[in-house]
């Protein structure tokens, strides 16, 4: 009788991926990142283990939105206190800190479990082409 192979935590090899966000649509771009962070592109993927890779995103300021989202999409939050309701338009957030837009999108696509924070720590986002990670990358993606 054969048993299904379950990888051990020490056997996980993490690769580095460089993704260029210029002229990419936010949703489609974020799904690529989530697949790499979760490790779904690997043959040894297992849902209960964190087997994902490191992802470095460059040119976040050149990200695009489809349709009328740039004018209509709003992020809402509430602190829990009276008067603690806040609204931020995505156009304003894209100008001020586009890395937060990508982080929010990817965070919303990852499953809400105890692996989420570790996966998000492996996501590095930069507004332009400069990054401190050198030549660690296995392959480069661009959309």
TrEMBL record:
Matches recorded under InterPro entries: Ribosomal_uL13 (IPR005822), Ribosomal_uL13_bac-type (IPR005823), Ribosomal_uL13_sf (IPR036899)
GO biological-process terms attached to the record: negative regulation of translation; translation
Gene3D superfamilies, sorted: Ribosomal protein L13
GO MF term set: mRNA binding; structural constituent of ribosome
Transmembrane segments: none
Key words, A-Z: Ribonucleoprotein, Ribosomal protein
Single GO cellular component term: ribosome
UniProt KW Ribonucleoprotein keyword: yes
Domain of life where this protein originates: Bacteria
Key word Ribonucleoprotein present: yes
Classification via Pfam families: Ribosomal_L13
HAMAP family cross-referenced by the UniProt entry: Ribosomal_uL13 (MF_01366)
Subunit note: Part of the 50S ribosomal subunit.
NCBIfam families: rplM_bact (TIGR01066)
Similarity-based family: Belongs to the universal ribosomal protein uL13 family.
Name of the featured protein: Large ribosomal subunit protein uL13
Organism expressing this protein natively: Candidatus Woesebacteria bacterium GW2011_GWA1_37_7
Lineage: Bacteria, Candidatus Woeseibacteriota
């Amino acid at each position: 009788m054969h048993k299904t192979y379950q990888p051990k935590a020490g056997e996980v090899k993490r690769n580095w991926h460089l993704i260029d966000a210029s002229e990419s649509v936010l949703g489609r771009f974020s799904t690529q990142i989530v697949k790499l962070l979760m490790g779904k592109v690997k043959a040894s993927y297992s849902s209960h283990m964190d087997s994902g890779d490191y992802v470095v995103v460059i040119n976040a300021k050149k990200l695009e939105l489809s349709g009328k989202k740039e004018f209509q999409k709003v992020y809402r939050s509430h602190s829990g206190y009276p008067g603690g309701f806040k609204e931020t338009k995505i156009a304003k957030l894209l100008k001020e800190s586009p890395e937060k837009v990508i982080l929010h999108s990817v965070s919303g696509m990852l499953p809400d479990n105890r692996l989420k924070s570790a996966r998000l720590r492996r996501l590095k986002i930069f507004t332009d082409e400069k990054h401190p990670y050198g030549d660690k990358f296995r392959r480069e993606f661009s959309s």
